[in-house]
Each structure stands twice: as C-alpha cells, then as structure tokens.
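Lecture 7 notes: from sequence to structure.

We start with a single chain of 240 residues. Read the sequence below before looking at the structure.
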Amino acid sequence: MKIKGKCVLITGSAKRCGAELAKSFASDGAEVIIHCNRSTREAEELLATLPGNGHRIIAADFSSPAGVAELISQLGRVDIVINNASLFFRPGSPEDLAGAVLYHQVNFLAPKQILEAWAKQDLPEGCAVNILDQAVLNPGTGGYWQSRYDLMHLGNSLARTLGERNLRINAVAPGPLLPPYWKPDSKMEKTLPTLPLHRPVAVADFVNAVKLLCTSDSITGAILPVDCGQHLLSFHEKRK
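Now the structure, written as tokens:
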C-alpha cells in the first residue's frame, strides 16, 4: 500500500511519538488527521510544520463513547488508522474500579469503535496499526495490561475477518521510547540496563516499524515488538 495520497488518522498525535508519526506520514505525501484531547496548542503547532496539504486537527475526548463518536462524525474517508492514543497512570497510583474502567474505555473500546467505523467504509484497500506495549507479550495483571491485551486480540480477530476485503490490521508493541511524561528528564537508568540491547528504542525505528506494516501488503495480524528485546525478559526481571 502506498502512503502518498492516502488519508491517515493518527490518534494521540499532538506530541511525543504520535507527532513523529504525523511528520513522517505527511513527508511521504499523506493527508494527516491529527487527533488530540486537550493538547490543542501542541496540535496547532505541529499542523503548522507539516509539509503538504489537507492536514487537519480533530479534538476529541476518548473517555466516553460519545467523545469517540464525535471524532468519527468528523472524519470522512480514512485509508489508514494508527491507534496511538492511550492512557497510562503513573506507577504506584492506586488502581480502583473507576481507573480500570477508564483504561478499558480509552485503551480498548475507543480504538475498537474507530476500527469498526473504518471497516464500514467502501475501501479498495486499507490498513490499521494498533500501538500496544511490549508488556502484552508476557503474562501480566492490572487494568492497563488487560486493556492492551484485549486490543491485541481484537486486532488479530479483525485481521482474520477483514482480510477478504483487503483490509489489514497489525500492531507494534514498543518498549522504552521516551522518558515518561511525569519525569521528562529521566534517563531510564533502572530500565535500560535490563534490556538485552541496553539502550532506549530509537523513535525513528518505531516510526519505521509502523510504516513497514502499512506499506507491506502481505502482512496482517502481525505484532511487531520494537523494544530492544524487553519482551524477552520475565515479569520479575522487568520489575527489578
């Protein structure tokens, strides 16, 4: 699938890795829909830097189905979906029932709703990439892990049922890309020495992995870990 001339929705793309995806797809000639929640200033700044024409911003809150429906109502034709938006509470935060419900809504139900709307279009070809977390490639616990795990299996199921319509669905499971938002100056000193490659994931490698899955017409139902080997570690090794 060629990226040039296609319309690409990238959720959570106002900043961080989502913004890098937006820049790269725009540079390849795609029309990019930048989705954000509250980061409208960052989205507008990003929009002003994108090469090409037809790019736009849609702000929508994924914490409710109504917010996702509002996004969908403004989309129009979308050839490529990158489900990048996610919710992740700071480690150590108590996870009550409300938190688990919010994880489920933002990290699973929102991308599910978007994929269902995307699949209803009459497209000659299309692809979607769900951004997961390397953690789902091992047993885990908690609302965050469960929401990502559910999205992983939803993607696999849809890849089987939508393949006959030339709609492909894949996933990227990244490891430590950038310092966490609550500690932007962190050098990830505890995490990186535990990785087989002992280094953070290059953002360019993450972006290239997403684009590989979009452009490779023979790949569907794949989950590509881009994590410097973090998925190879046991649960206890990751927590050291």
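The helical segments are 16-27, 40-49, 65-73, 97-119, 142-162, 203-215, 235-238. Keep this in mind for problem set 3.
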